[in-house]
Amino acid sequence: MNYACRDDYGALAKDTSAWAGVHYFSSREAEEKGPLTWPEGNGWITRRLLERVGENVRTNQMVQRIAETKRGVSVFAGDTEFQSEFVIFAAPTFLAPYLIEGFPRLNDFVYSPWLTANLTLERLPDSRGAEPTWDTVILDSPTLGYVDATHQSLRTHIDRTVWTFYWALAEGTPAQNRQLLLEKDWNYWKEAILHDLERVHSDIRQCVSRIDVMRMGHAMIRPAVGSVFSEERRHLTRREPRADSRVLFANSDLSAISIFEEAQYHGVLAAQIALKRIDGRR
Fold this sequence. Notes:
The protein is α+β, with helices and mostly antiparallel strands. Helices cover 31% and strands 22% of the residues. Strand 1 and strand 2 (73-77) form a beta hairpin.
């Protein structure tokens, strides 16, 4: 149970909403038929969307402020002001108080800090226990193990590969662990990762030629106890927000679960609300 909650939510079982804890297991088929995916992952979906709306996309423009006006919403990015009838805020919701004028502080949106690392291996290491698979988990480890980034390759033999290592910092409070991520340098995390792997791959240090570490302070929403059905979350996800509100929200964290399908659902819902209200006035 602890591994499942750390893997999906970045939290220990005792810190996880009971509803979310049950969801982890009840949402899965009794017999797993295997994943359906594209070689480039969700990048395939991104490219198909850009084929349709790419001419309206503006990249490399950081938004500093969002303000509702009598006419609509103003979005300030650099020295440019964009005016619109509605804004769909698809960024992580914890950013809203920093960007949207007059937006209150959030209490029920807690985010789990994570560490990931890509290890480039010049050869496969020796293994104690089971042979490495696509997803390898080490018993009683504080980490989540690693996946083989070349697992979809059709080659019959692979020497050089990349392992992606996952570590959800679930022990202690998220704020404390974010501070730990900030304070500790690359060498600290490199040693921690290799020390964990050495328990099952004794010669891992002789195999690794490069380690790229990524620190993520707000990697995923944490379904903390009592947060999934809180009034604060219901207020942001209700199908008909207050009539004078022109900012709609659409991030997976609105469901308290970091799942792609939840983000897609909230995005479609926000678009439908905006279109309905625009059509009602025209």
